[in-house]
């Protein structure tokens, strides 16, 4: 079972997080061994199926978080206190979920909780990278600078991911539309013309026979087909939410002929930028690598970066640790990291890697947008041509027989 806890250390520091244990007493015992004074310990219930739908419509999007972070950074740079900044942002934030979180964060800060600890309570909104960078900035007294870094990062990420999504939306929409139109033709039109061909007793082309048989099947069993497809989609989505499913999905994407190269460069660019910001903010290198892995959204890269971080903790050279995963981290990454280790400027090397692969991703996306339209026209045109050929060829043969 999974439990959410809040506790205080011997020094009075507040800690909030999750713990896995077979029972509540076992969870309390584990926390006790870490010398934590438990304030609350609650079971995390498995979400109902409809809660995912509700969360989708009420979630805090990256765009909302980017705007919030930019406003936060601007007000802090103007030397407005965190308390007054949060109170102002509460009234300026349109997203209801984020506005409620801002209210709770302000209340926690008024109660003496640090900003990073208050943010950590809302991990569904403020991801690990966000919290750790603020936590590090609190030690050095540069929270406003850290907020500026976060705002820049979120805006760049939003711009980059927006380009990737826009490049993928068009082909997905066209292919889905072609499938729907093809299904309507096969399921509704072909069964209507089947009696005509049967009465004519003409030899039908193979392609027409295939489409006619498929049309009869869909016309008779369409309800079962629809139920089967919906059930298959639900099962697939549930599987992809599991750790194994996420790993399988990531592997399929990263091994895809064209999209694999795009996503590898995208993940490397995001990792390098996050790692650079964290290291520059004072986070130890191994911890920065691991946090970056949790932020990318890829199960495979998370496992790889965790292994690399463990290698660095054991005293292994970072360049050697990256070299073990040459398929996912190109040689230029290993070489730049090696230079960073020699010069003591790992954060700068990471930033250069991020800039290089960021440009690579933009170039690939631009080329993808230019190439995808003619390719889709050929593919969809070919499918439409097959459908019309299946109808017109037997009609042409019938006319020839009549003559």
Q: Could you please describe the fold and organization of this structure?
A:
The chain is mostly helical. The chain starts with a strand and ends with a helix. 77% of the residues lie in helices and 5% in strands.
List the helices and strands and how they pair.
Elements: E1 2-8, E2 14-20, H1 24-33, E3 37-43, H2 49-58, H3 62-77, H4 82-92, H5 96-110, H6 115-120, H7 128-140, H8 143-200, H9 206-241, H10 243-254, H11 259-280, H12 285-296, H13 299-313, H14 318-323, H15 331-343, H16 346-402
Helix pairs in contact: 3-4, 3-8, 4-5, 7-8, 8-9, 8-16, 9-10, 9-16, 11-12, 11-16, 12-13, 15-16
Topology pattern, helix = H, strand = E: EEHEHHHHHHHHHHHHHHH
**Are there runs of 5+ residues with pLDDT below 50, and where?**
none
Number of separate strands: 3
Percent helix among the residues? Answer: over 70%
Radius of gyration, taken over Cα atoms and rounded to an integer in Å: 28 Å
Note the gap between the termini.
Answer: 78 Å
Largest sheet: 3 strands, antiparallel
Summed up:
The chain has helices at residues 24-33, 49-58, 62-77, 82-92, 96-110, 115-120, 128-140, 143-200, 206-241, 243-254, 259-280, 285-296, 299-313, 318-323, 331-343, 346-402, and strands spanning 2-8, 14-20, 37-43.
């Amino acid at each position: 079972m999974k439990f959410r806890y809040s506790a205080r250390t011997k020094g009075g520091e507040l800690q909030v997080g999750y713990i896995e244990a077979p029972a509540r007493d076992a969870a309390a015992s584990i926390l006790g061994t870490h010398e934590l004074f438990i304030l609350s310990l609650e079971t995390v219930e498995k979400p109902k199926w409809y809660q995912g739908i509700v969360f989708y419509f009420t979630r805090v999007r990256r765009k909302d978080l980017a705007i919030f972070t930019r406003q936060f950074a601007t007000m802090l740079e103007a030397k407005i206190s965190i308390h007054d900044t949060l109170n102002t942002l509460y009234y300026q934030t349109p997203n209801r979920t984020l506005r409620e979180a801002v209210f709770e964060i302000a209340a926690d800060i008024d109660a003496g909780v640090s900003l990073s600890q208050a943010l950590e309570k809302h991990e569904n909104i403020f991801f690990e990278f966000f919290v750790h960078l603020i936590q590090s900035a609190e030690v050095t007294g540069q929270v406003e600078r850290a907020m500026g870094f976060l705002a820049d990062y979120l805006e760049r990420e939003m711009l980059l991911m927006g380009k990737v999504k826009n490049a993928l939306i068009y082909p997905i929409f066209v292919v889905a539309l072609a499938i729907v139109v093809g299904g309507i033709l096969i399921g509704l039109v072909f069964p209507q013309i089947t009696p005509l061909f049967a009465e004519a007793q003409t030899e039908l082309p193979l392609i027409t026979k295939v489409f006619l048989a498929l049309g009869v099947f869909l016309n008779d069993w369409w309800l079962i087909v629809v139920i089967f497809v919906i059930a298959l989609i639900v099962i697939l989505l549930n599987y992809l939410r599991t750790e194994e499913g996420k790993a399988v999905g990531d592997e399929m994407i990263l091994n895809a002929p064209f999209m694999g190269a795009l996503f590898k460069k995208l993940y490397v660019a995001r990792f390098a930028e996050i790692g650079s910001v964290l290291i520059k903010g004072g986070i130890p290198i191994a911890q920065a690598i691991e946090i970056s892995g949790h932020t990318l959204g890829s199960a495979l890269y998370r496992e790889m970066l965790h292994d690399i971080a463990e290698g660095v903790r054991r005293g292994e050279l970072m360049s050697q640790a990256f070299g073990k995963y040459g398929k996912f981290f190109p040689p230029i990454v290993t070489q730049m990291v090696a230079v960073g280790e020699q010069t003591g400027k790992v954060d700068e090397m990471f930033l250069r890697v991020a800039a290089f692969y960021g440009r690579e991703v933009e170039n690939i996306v631009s080329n993808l947008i230019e190439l995808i339209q003619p390719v889709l026209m050929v593919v969809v045109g070919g499918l439409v041509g097959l459908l019309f050929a299946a109808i017109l060829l037997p009609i042409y043969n019938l006319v020839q027989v009549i003559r």
